[in-house]
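Supplementary notes (optional reading)

For those who missed the lab, this is the record we used. Protein: DUF438 domain-containing protein. Length: 49 residues.
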Amino acid sequence: MSAEDLATAEKKLIEEGKINEEQVQKLCDVHASIFGGSVEEINGGQTIE
């Protein structure tokens, strides 16, 4: 799954009210810890919408 596909899926879940932005951020932190680095390092300090 590409980062773009993941972002699209997350956005859809937020729009449907199944998950909130804070929960998505927690998942991002988990993924970053598994794969190394931090969300900030991976995203270059940018917010993904």
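If you only remember one thing from this example: Residues 18 and 36 are 27 Å apart (CA to CA).
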